[in-house]
UDP-glucose 6-dehydrogenase
Amino acid sequence: MEISIVGSGYVGTTIAACFAEVGHDVVNVDIDEEIVETINDGRAPIHEPGLDELVVEHAGDRLRATTDYGAVRDTDATFLALPTPSEADGHIDLSIMEAGARSLGAALAEKDDYHVVVTKSTVVPTTTEEVIAPILAEESGKVLGQDLGIGMNPEFLREGSAVSDFLDPDKIVLGAESDRAKATLRGVFEPLAERAGEPPIVETGVAEAEMIKYANNGFLAAKISLANDLANICKEYGIDSEEVLEAIGLDHRIGAAFLGAGVGWGGSCFPKDVAAIIAAARDVGYEPAMLQAAVEVNDRQPVRLLELLRGHVDPDGARVAVLGLAFKPGTDDIRNSRALPLVDALVDAGADVVGYDPVATENFRERYPDIDYAETAEAALDDADAALVVTDWPEFADLDEAFDAMATPIVVDGRRIVTRREGIVYESLV
Ligand code: UDX
C-alpha cells in the first residue's frame, strides 16, 4: 500500500521505516528540511537500535521524506505522528496536531478518492473525532464517512527497543469510525501481523483506541508505583523487597514485568500520559484516585533516597556522586529523569554534586551547567563522600574497587544495581 506519515520524530521515523520494511511504499512528511534530507540520505534522524539499517535499506526506494504535504495525495492513508506536549497543568497541547491536521486537510482538498487519516500520536479520548476530524473535513471539503475515513492506532514503543517493539508487537490496536476505514487499517497492518506471527488485533472505536494507550501506560506506571509502595513497606520492616516482588511476579495474574522497584518512573511518556489522563478525567468530572496516588508515590521516591543519604551524611558541603542521569539505561534521554528532582534537592541542601552517565551527560549539563561532571563512574566516585545510584546502567553493578577511592564509601542505591562488597556502607532505597 501507499502510506504517508506526518511527523518525523521518534515515532514517525520509526513507523515510516518499519512500514517500508514490511513492504509498503512510505512517504514521511515533515516541515524540518534537515530531517527530511537526513532520511533521504539514508540516515536515521534519531538514534534507535536497528533504525539506521532500515533507513539505509529503504531510503530512495520504498521510503522517502519530503516537506511537501501534497505527497499525501498519492497515498491511501496518512498517519499523524506529531508531538502532543504537556501544558503546565498536565493537559496536552494540541496546537501542533491541529496545525498538522490543517495542512493535511488542505492537501487532501485536491484528492478525489477516499482517504483515511489515522491518529498515531497520544491524544486524550474523543480528540480525534471532536478536534482533528472537523479540521480535516473543513480544510479538505471532504465528508467524514464518505470520502474521508478516520482512525486511531496507538503506539506502545519503548525508547531503545522501538524497532523491535514495532515489528514484534504484543497487540495491534485499530480504532476506526467505519468499516471502510477499518478495512484500510487492516490492509496496512496485514503484512506486519503476518511477519510478527499474527499477534492479536484489537478492532475498536476511535475513542476506545485513544483510551487504550492511556490505560496501558497508566497501568504500567501504577504497577511500578505499587511495587514501590510495597517495597517501601518491606524496607521499613527490613524485608528483602526483591524477593517479595519476584515471588508475586510468578502469579500469572500479576506478571513479573514492571515490578522493578526503585527511584521511580520517568521518560517522555509515563509522566506526560499519566498527567494528561488525570487532567482529562477531571475535566469530565472524575477524580482518578489510583493514578493520582501513582504520581504521589513516584514523586516521593527521590525524596526518600535523599532522606536515606541524610541518615549517613549531611549533604551540606558533602561531595555527592550521582550515578546515572538518563531516565532509564540505554538512552541519553533525560526527560523526567528521576535524577532531575534529586539533583535539585541535593543542590538545595548545599551538596557539591558530581554527575556521571555513560551517555546522557551532555543533555543533563544543558539543564544543570553548574554542577560537576565526571567522564567515568570511577572519576565521579573519586574523593566523594557519598554516591547515589539513580539509573540502572549495567556498569554500576561492577564498580567494585572504584568505591575504595571514595572519601567515605557510602552508597545509597536507588535501583538495587550495585553489587555489595566488603568495605562499603551500602543502603538500598527499597
Ligand atoms: C514507555 C512504555 O513502556 C511504552 O509502551 C510507551 O509507548 C512509552 O512509554 P519508555 O518511556 O521508553 O516506554 O520506557 P520504559 O522502559 O517503559 O520505562 C519507563 C520508566 O519506568 C523508566 O524511568 C524506568 O526506569 C521505569 N521503570 C520501568 C521502573 O522503575 N521499573 C520497572 O520495572 C520498569
